[in-house]
Amino acid sequence: MPADLLKETLTLILAGGQGERLYPLTRDRAKPAVPFGGIYRIIDFTLSNCLNSGCNRLYVLTQYKSFSLERHIHLGWDPIFNNMELGQYIHILPPQMRQGPQWYQGTADAIYQNIYTLERERPQRVLILAGDHVYKMNYHDMVQFHVERNAVLTVACVPIEKARANQLGIAVTDPSKRITGFQEKPKDHPATIPGDPEHCLASMGIYIFETEELVRRLSRDARRDTAHDFGKNIIPEMIEDGARVYAYPFKDENKKDMPYWRDVGTIDSYYDANLDLVTVNPLFNLYDNDWPLRTYQEQGPPAKFVFAGYGGDASRRGQALDSLVAHGVIVSGGTVERSILSPAVRVNSYSHVEESILMEGVNIGRHAHLRRAIIDKGVRIPEGTKIGYDLEEDRRRFIVTESGVVVVPKEMALE
User: Fold this and answer.
1) Three-class DSSP category at 359
2) Looking at 52-152, which runs of residues are DSSP E strands?
3) Which 3 state secondary structure label does DSSP give 77?
4) pLDDT value at position 2?
5) What is the distance between the alpha carbons of residues 90 and 95, in angstroms, rounded to a whole number?
6) Among candidates 344, 345, 352, which has minimal Cα distance to 321?
7) Where are the domains of the chain?
8) So what CATH class is 304-408?
9) What CATH number has the domain spanning 4-276?
10) N or C: which end of the chain has fewer CB within 10 A?
11) pTM for this structure?
């Protein structure tokens, strides 16, 4: 693939989502800034894909509660991408209100309100990504696919179970992979993959547009009373008009038997995706040196595990089993099983943490017991507290999901 194809491609990352279904983890931060896997933020996976693919002209479109996201990008990603002499950069774009005094009204409107950036940059094509999904993908290959087919729009697609069709946009394609129909979150009778009645072809929210076509479509949509959304408005209209719209089959860089792409849009899906990481053979591989995953981490000391049944007290043993443990963690005489411990977590003596996610700076008091819990940043769990054992009692103080995961909000005072 000629190197100049990526030089002619500008990347826009939509990272302004409220993430309402992830509340209270999104109470004080945007969804792309939610921690994942102990040391990462969700947006790190999209940014790592960009870096590994050679996409190095990026604009990140932010909106809701963006401070922690902007700080993370500034500290962790500015040093990697920003080199104006080489023509590579990452810029944060909060709502500019250039097209009116309103927030972004939809995915298409978010791009439309930043048309000025496209006019200034004048790229041949635009790669549009979501900043709140977990996956590995080489965008270089998708750009090549797009150019080879002389497409005006290419949509990355992945097979999903038919039961999930009402959550995503569903594409209908011909043998050449040209999209001939599109259903946005169909509630009934979703189109299935030919020869496979149990699966549908879903849009991943990843698009490549020819810039002129994108600007023309967005400008026309802005003058209409629509949802100003790619899946609901722009894509179906382009297909109806006979535009050359193609489906790019997702090529997973995760090197597993099944393709991995997760929205983690609910607490339960977020919890399950995290807890998968502590299994012997997780679905998502964090340890592949051929596709490195980067993030920003503050400097900190190594993790430490102290007390090993000293003085004949076998119950006082600092240990973590089948767990991910970040730097700065101290497990002081407590036991951690199948859990994720973020930086600077403290687990004190005689406590027991099981199948839980502890975010940065959490302190677990002595004799506390946690099971199937998410404890957000900076929470101090008092001595003797039990969480996850009596869900009715937990519901009086915390949020408890349908599957019984207890969520303690950021910096909540527990006494």
Assistant:
1) coil
2) 57-61, 89-93, 125-130, 134-135
3) coil
4) 46
5) 16
6) 352
7) 4-276, 304-408
8) mainly beta
9) 3.90.550.10
10) C
11) 0.94
